């Protein structure tokens, strides 16, 4: 399994777009992780220097309270990545077991669980997330949970599809023959073999999670200020379009590049996995995504 | 077909019932009530108590729910706690705006998405294809609120061509005004959807191009334009209709971010306002309308399938 | 572009910092103005037509559908309106009014003493009196010797200014329509209601029998409701409306720059950092007093209100009789003085934190200025979090007094000083935040002293000074700045704007150049 992932990584790096994306994400992640070591202060106010355009002192300019926008973008990466990571984890921890159980047992369990998933899908996820935040109160963990819940259906559906393909295969029936318990079969036998598509889903979801977190902040229900957040910066920047046009533009650029990077990597992985399947079955799988 | 549609309609009822109860339960879990906003900051305790009684908010939740349900089944969704206007009327005022924007966005998306998909599907993996795929990725990756901001900066702040904030102008009343107001939000949403459409249509076009009947047609010497135009397009349209339908359904309530960027008076923003002021009947009404629209459009898509491709059977 | 616009912004900010910015263009050339259809963009949906519910959302219609007994000029001088004359008894325990002749309500009903009596009765009723009720507390009873005369008796001698405030606050309602006044307007005003589309707007037309000569100028008055400031500004810029009423200061500054006219009236609000002195470290007086110096008022005014307004350390608008500039200088932003008071409080570092600033997340200005305070607090070593609430959740917390500290504007601060007690934090009894018994008896006594100061100018002045001193000493409300409400931003072709003492929208003198 580990070898599989390493070879997947190698093949990923062979693609130029994916390699570039990885490099950018690494940069963002490093900046977020070691932001404390950089000479950047995301909270220091200086109202006299408010809404300055980009300059040699502050590369991205300053915001309405005279804070350094670059510093806030760097620290905002922390907010964004932590929320996205937590959300993906939440979605996987709930969605995968739901999908496994639904697919493994079928019948009424399948119907019930999948109807719940359908309801989640029917409401636009941004509205659902907002409603959830209204219940939980505005905080980083609320944003994380709200975004995570939106990701549950994706994981559940993929896990379910994988189980349904795998459960009749020889090695699964063999384990069952030896008297393996359902839990053991699901989590120890089937899950490891269904990992690749789930990893791809996690990466695809990461891009969606970052987008959704930013959208929630843009709508004014994300991580509360003064914690820097990209979406919040776009929200505030939008009301200063006339005075400081670069305010909303630069954080948006970093946000967009981050989303695009995750998306590019996700698509590259899908393509690689698709080719594997194509090689294995000899058939073309068109329009999979 | 009629029986199928009827059965699908019947299936919607339990889902709506479940959803309406879930919404009610959720509303009561939310901290803060509607009374504070109604009576205002400087109100005394007697005024608050009177307002709670007036709106029947002191009754048990189950009683309130059943009361609401009874009226709703009779077609009365109650009145907004704030404006005292019937919920259906408030929604009815926003729905045309939402539909107009959704339609305009879909048109933009088709105008961009179809040519992009065809151009890249003609020669898969060529440089043109790669470039156009890049477009799709970009269209999908750029957050609508950022694109909206960029468009406002360019067309409103710099060039002064278009308004920086939109309002709803019915198209048949003042087409030019309506277009000016719709241009930026429709472009913002349309670009995003064009990414989805292009990706999807390209994949199914390539899939169809490899299908047997296409090979047969080529072998028989049918002109390539006819093959692409008639055979491939027709079959590739099938999944395409689904996507367009799903997008439409999603826009009914899900275009809130774009609506927020351009301060467009759509249904999504009405719902957000309702949540913010805890206007219970309005929240219920909005969410149910969004759900019904979603399900009806899905049904319409399935019915359209059958019309495009008579091979599909409905059981 | 970037550089230019930034400089433009700064210059505007500077220009606005000067005194009396927009008062120049008053109705001088009313004769040359033409009528027509006046299209006004407003930001709030009207709540109802009751003139005794004087909330911001009703500001755009009240003075167009109704008239007051008397009016104030923007400088606070009383002028006749529906009352042509008023005589305050020498012992200051009653006032006698002479009512205008030849005035009729929209229903055709003639305006007589009975309508003033009905209006007084409604105002004195705790259920129906709404915003007028607390003002009626000084009134004992009333009588009408004849159809044109009304006498109002007070419980005790009342200062002149307070009597005038009451008369200006009283808006006669048609006795025939007084029970349905929430849904059907019943006034004598310059305009009558034509139609209303909830959530969208309201159409009024000129009252042909209006008593003021040659008014109103515009035959039709159309209000359109915009849900957001930006949308209203955009409509003004694109020519879809002629006037935006009650938009934000920031937009006004930008639009003025773009060639639009901006009119700001005397009825400003004062932003107050409200402190719940029944909780945590705020029970400590010295700790509270530190906040007098902790407010970076200049920054707050600049980032929250684009510099439009004045920094203040007392809850008075500049037009208030108790306004005292010297306090603003004494209590200027000074972290060292704040630190000294914090040290003097004797509180441990732990005891000083652990509270939150409640913030109205839907109010952009309050989000920004709360962060300014948060920044200042961090500089003196007190880390606090912002408790962001949206809409109803915020108002519920505010209403229940369920907060440690929060920013909230107070109104009625340009009139008689004790009117400040209509705002929840300054209430002397039944205060929802500080509860009963009031934890600051000195403040309650100071308010009572102002209310009772019916003697000479020196006595009144001493009472005001005492109140001011107590306000900064008790420090449960820390005012930061005055700012404009009901700003009027108009296209260049509009003329004849009348400024109202309460900044209500008065359309009758407005016309097209």
UniProtKB/TrEMBL annotation, chain A:
PROSITE patterns per the UniProt record, alphabetical: ABC_TM1 (PS50928)
Compartments where found: Cell membrane
Membrane-spanning ranges: 81-105, 117-136, 142-159, 198-224, 244-265
Superkingdom per UniProt: Bacteria
Keyword field: Cell membrane, Membrane, Transmembrane, Transmembrane helix, Transport
CDD domains: TM_PBP2 (cd06261)
Domain annotation ABC transmembrane type-1: ranges: 77-266
Protein's membrane topology: Multi-pass membrane protein
Listed PANTHER family: OLIGOPEPTIDE TRANSPORT SYSTEM PERMEASE PROTEIN APPC, PEPTIDE ABC TRANSPORTER PERMEASE PROTEIN
Protein name as it appears in the record: ABC transporter permease
Species of the source: Bosea minatitlanensis
From TrEMBL, chain B:
Keywords on record: Cell membrane, Membrane, Transmembrane, Transmembrane helix, Transport
Classification via PROSITE patterns: ABC_TM1
Transmembrane segments: 12-30, 101-122, 134-162, 182-201, 236-262, 282-308
Family the UniProt entry places it in: Belongs to the binding-protein-dependent transport system permease family.
Cross-referenced Pfam families: BPD_transp_1, BPD_transp_1_N
Entry membrane topology: Multi-pass membrane protein
Compartments it resides in: Cell membrane
Domain ABC transmembrane type-1, first and last residues per copy: 95-301
CDD domains membership: TM_PBP2
Keyword Cell membrane attached: yes
Protein name: ABC transporter permease
Source species taxonomy: Bacteria, Pseudomonadati, Pseudomonadota, Alphaproteobacteria, Hyphomicrobiales
UniProtKB/TrEMBL annotation, chain C:
CDD domains: PBP2_NikA_DppA_OppA_like
Domain Solute-binding protein family: 77-413
InterPro entries reported for this sequence: Peptide/Ni-bd (IPR030678), SBP_5 (IPR039424), SBP_5_CS (IPR023765), SBP_5_dom (IPR000914), TAT_signal (IPR006311)
Pfam families: SBP_bac_5 (PF00496)
Location within or outside the cell: Periplasm
Keywords associated with the record: Signal, Transport
Signal sequence annotation: 1-30
Family from the record: Belongs to the bacterial solute-binding protein 5 family.
Protein name stated in the entry: ABC transporter substrate-binding protein
């Amino acid at each position: 399994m580990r070898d599989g992932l390493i070879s997947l990584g190698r093949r990923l790096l062979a693609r130029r777009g994916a390699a570039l994306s990885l490099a950018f994400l690494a940069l963002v992640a490093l900046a977020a992780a070691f932001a404390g070591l950089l000479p950047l202060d995301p909270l220091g106010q200086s109202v006299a220097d408010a809404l300055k355009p980009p300059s040699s002192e502050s590369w991205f300019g300053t915001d309405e309270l005279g804070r350094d926008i670059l510093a806030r973008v760097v620290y905002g990466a922390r907010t964004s990545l932590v929320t996205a990571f937590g959300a993906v984890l939440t979605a996987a921890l709930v969605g995968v077991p739901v999908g496994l159980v639904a697919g493994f047992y079928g019948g009424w369990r399948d119907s019930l669980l999948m109807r719940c998933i359908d309801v989640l899908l029917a409401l636009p996820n941004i509205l659902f997330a907002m409603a959830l935040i209204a219940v939980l109160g505005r905080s980083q963990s609320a944003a994380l949970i709200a975004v995570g819940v939106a990701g549950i259906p994706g994981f559940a559906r993929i896990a379910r599809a994988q189980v349904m393909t795998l459960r009749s295969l020889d090695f699964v029936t063999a384990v069952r023959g030896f008297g393996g318990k359902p839990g053991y079969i699901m989590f120890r036998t089937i899950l490891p073999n269904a990992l690749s598509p789930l990893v791809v889903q996690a990466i695809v979801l990461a891009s969606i999670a970052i987008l959704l977190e930013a959208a929630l902040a843009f709508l004014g229900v994300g991580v509360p200020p003064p914690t820097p957040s990209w979406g919040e910066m776009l929200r505030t920047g939008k009301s200063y379009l006339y005075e400081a046009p670069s305010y909303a533009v630069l954080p948006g650029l970093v946000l967009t590049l981050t989303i695009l990077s995750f998306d590019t990597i996700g698509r590259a992985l899908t393509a690689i996995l698709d080719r594997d399947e194509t090689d294995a079955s000899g058939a073309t799988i068109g329009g999979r995504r | 077909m009629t029986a199928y549609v009827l059965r699908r309609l019947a299936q919607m009822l339990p889902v709506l019932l479940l959803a309406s109860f879930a919404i009610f339960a959720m509303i009561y879990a939310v901290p803060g009530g509607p009374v504070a906003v109604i009576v205002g900051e400087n109100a005394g305790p007697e005024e608050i108590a009177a307002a709670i009684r007036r709106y029947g908010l002191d009754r048990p939740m189950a009683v309130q729910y059943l009361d609401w349900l009874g009226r709703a089944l009779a077609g009365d969704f109650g009145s907004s706690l704030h404006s005292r206007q019937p919920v259906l009327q408030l929604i009815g005022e926003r729905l045309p705006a939402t539909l107009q924007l959704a339609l305009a966005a879909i048109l933009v998306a088709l105008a961009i998405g179809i040519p992009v998909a065809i151009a890249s599907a003609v020669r898969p993996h060529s440089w043109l294809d790669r470039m156009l795929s890049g477009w799709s990725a970009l269209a999908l990756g750029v957050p609508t609120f950022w694109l909206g901001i960029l468009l406002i900066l360019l067309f409103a702040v710099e060039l002064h061509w278009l308004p920086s904030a939109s309002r709803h102008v019915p198209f048949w009343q003042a087409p030019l005004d309506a277009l000016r107001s719709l241009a930026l939000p429709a472009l913002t949403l349309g670009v995003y959807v064009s990414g989805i459409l292009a990706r999807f249509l390209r994949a199914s076009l390539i899939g169809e191009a490899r299908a047997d009947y296409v090979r047969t047609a080529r072998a028989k010497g049918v002109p390539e334009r006819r093959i692409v135009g008639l055979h491939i397009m027709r079959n590739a349209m099938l999944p395409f209709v689904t996507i367009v339908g799903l997008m439409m359904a999603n826009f009914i309530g899900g275009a809130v971010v774009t609506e927020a960027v351009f301060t467009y008076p759509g249904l999504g923003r009405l719902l957000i306002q309702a949540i913010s002021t805890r206007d219970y009947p309005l929240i219920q009404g909005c969410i149910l309308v969004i759900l019904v629209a979603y399900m009806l459009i899905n049904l319409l898509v399935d019915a359209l399938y059958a019309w495009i491709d008579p091979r599909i059977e409905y059981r | 572009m970037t550089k230019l616009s930034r400089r433009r912004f700064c210059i505007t900010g500077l220009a606005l910092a000067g005194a009396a910015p927009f008062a120049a263009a008053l109705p001088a050339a009313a004769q040359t103005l033409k009528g027509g259809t006046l299209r006004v963009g407003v930001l709030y949906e009207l709540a109802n037509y009751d003139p005794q519910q004087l909330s911001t959302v009703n500001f755009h219609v009240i003075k167009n559908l109704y008239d007051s007994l008397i009016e104030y000029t923007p400088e606070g001088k009383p002028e006749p309106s529906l009352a042509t004359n008023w005589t305050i008894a020498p012992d200051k325990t009653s006032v006698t009014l002479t009512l205008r002749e030849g005035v009729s309500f929209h229903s055709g009903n003639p305006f007589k003493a009975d309508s003033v009596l009905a209006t007084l009765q409604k105002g004195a009723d705790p259920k129906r009196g709404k915003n007028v009720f607390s003002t009626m507390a000084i009134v004992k009873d009333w009588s009408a010797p004849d159809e044109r005369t009304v006498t109002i008796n007070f419980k005790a001698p009342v200062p002149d200014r307070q009597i005038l405030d009451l008369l200006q606050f009283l808006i006669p309602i048609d006795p025939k329509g007084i029970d349905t006044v929430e849904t059907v307007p019943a006034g004598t005003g310059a305009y009558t209601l034509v139609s209303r589309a909830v959530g969208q707007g309201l159409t009024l037309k000129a009252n042909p029998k209006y008593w003021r000569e040659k008014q109103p100028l515009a035959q039709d008055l159309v209000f359109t409701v915009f849900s957001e400031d930006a949308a209203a500004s955009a409509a003004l810029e694109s020519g879809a409306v002629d006037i935006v009423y009650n938009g934000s200061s920031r937009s006004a500054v930008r639009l003025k720059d773009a060639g639009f006219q901006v009119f700001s009236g005397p009825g400003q609000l004062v932003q107050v950092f409200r402190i719940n002195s029944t909780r945590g470290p705020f029970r400590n007086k010295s700790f509270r007093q530190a906040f007098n110096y902790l407010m970076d008022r200049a920054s707050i005014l600049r980032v929250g209100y684009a510099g439009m307004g004045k920094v203040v350390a007392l809850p008075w608008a500049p037009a208030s009789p108790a306004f005292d500039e010297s306090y603003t200088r004494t209590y200027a932003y000074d972290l060292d003085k704040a630190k000294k008071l914090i040290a003097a409080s004797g509180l441990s570092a732990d005891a000083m934190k652990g509270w939150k600033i409640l913030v109205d997340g839907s109010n952009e200005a309050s989000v920004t200025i709360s962060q300014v305070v948060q920044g200042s607090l961090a500089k003196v070593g007190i880390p606090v979090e912002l408790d962001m609430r949206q809409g109803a959740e915020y108002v519920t917390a505010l209403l229940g007094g369920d907060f440690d500290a929060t920013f909230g504007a107070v109104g009625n601060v340009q009139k008689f000083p004790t009117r400040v007690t209509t705002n929840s934090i300054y209430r002397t009894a039944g205060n929802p935040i500080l509860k009963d018994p009031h934890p600051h008896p000195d403040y309650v006594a100071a308010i009572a002293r102002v209310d009772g100061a019916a003697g000479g100018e020196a006595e009144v002045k001493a009472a005001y000074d005492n109140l001011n001193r107590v306000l900064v000493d008790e420090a449960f409300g820390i005012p930061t700045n005055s700012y404009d409400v009901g700003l009027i931003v108009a296209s260049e072709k509009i003329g004849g704007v009348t400024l109202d003492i309460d900044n209500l929208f008065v359309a009758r003198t407005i016309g097209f150049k």
